[in-house]
Amino acid sequence: MTSTPIPGPDAPTPAGREATLPDDGLQQGPLIPPRTATTGEPMIAINAVSKWYGSFQVLTDCTTTVSKGEVVVVCGPSGSGKSTLIKCVNALEPFQEGQITVDGTKVKDRATNLPKLRSRVGMVFQHFELFPHLSITDNLTLAQRKVLGRSPADAEKRGLDLLARVGLSDHAKKYPGQLSGGQQQRVAIARALAMDPVVMLFDEPTSALDPEMVGEVLDVMVELARDGMTMMVVTHEMGFARKVADRVIFMDRGEIVEDATKSDFFGQPRSPRAQHFLSKILSH
Ligand SMILES: Nc1ncnc2c1ncn2[C@@H]1O[C@H](COP(=O)(O)OP(=O)(O)OP(=O)(O)O)[C@@H](O)[C@H]1O
Ligand SMILES: [Mg+2]
Prior knowledge:
Elements: E1 42-53, E2 56-67, E3 71-75, H1 82-89, E4 97-102, E5 105-106, H2 114-119, E6 121-124, H3 136-146, H4 152-165, H5 181-193, E7 199-203, H6 211-226, E8 230-234, H7 238-244, E9 247-252, E10 255-261, H8 262-267, H9 272-282
Parallel strand pairs: 3-8, 3-9, 6-7, 7-8
Antiparallel strand pairs: 1-2, 1-4, 4-5, 9-10
Helix pairs in contact: 3-4, 3-5, 4-5, 5-6
Adenosine-5'-triphosphate is lined by residues 53, 56, 58, 76, 78-84.
């Protein structure tokens, strides 16, 4: 695997990404070391994946790739298989047919070390799933120490650095219950980033939040995208998709019905199902 060059501070913004962020109080500096985006080299390759729950087929012949540095938004009606598909990417769900490769590692392979694979795939869910009995600092450092074997000092430095980047330095000693939903979700993102993932998966990270907190979480995600992180994001936040997505995948009834560039998806969705979905979601 070739390493990606790290551009200097004057490196151009990745194509299609809007670099302007609102002045939201987030600290300056990248969330991850800046990298060039969209190299064309696949980070995630999903190849003819089908999955059944008993006799119910939840995924049908799903094929797509996510290149290094690419941001792909996955949308579609409730029950269409979006969560299932991204859970297959880090082997939280098994699948019966096809193959998924993440950064060259086959997900469905007896030889694959799944804990190691999962440690390289950051996942942020709708519900933040922080440990309620641990302080924010301990939430940020636990997996770094247990899974990556980092020293307590190194883990804390990395965790607190990321906490600063998501604008929450003052909250290091608090417990999750003392933070708002938006703040907890930002901690969850920082916790995932502390593992130095090669890709980040998000499953409706803002849909459980009160409306006034959605923006602060999206700002962090926009910044992450701008820094060149490879991201697969299940969301109905079409403003986010318009702002940073390179591609949009539309799923319906377990199938990838549309896999298009952002401009094609919003400008001229091919399938009637995507057209119908967009007309509903954009009318609000
Ligand atoms: N553990 C399970 N056992 C059986 N069926 C399941 C299970 N998990 C999900 N399903 C079914 O699989 C289908 C896809 O579910 P999935 O959660 O992937 O959809 P989704 O697109 O993420 O929906 P939503 O937008 O509501 O989150 C649904 O019909 C769901 O009922
Ligand atoms: Mg879902």
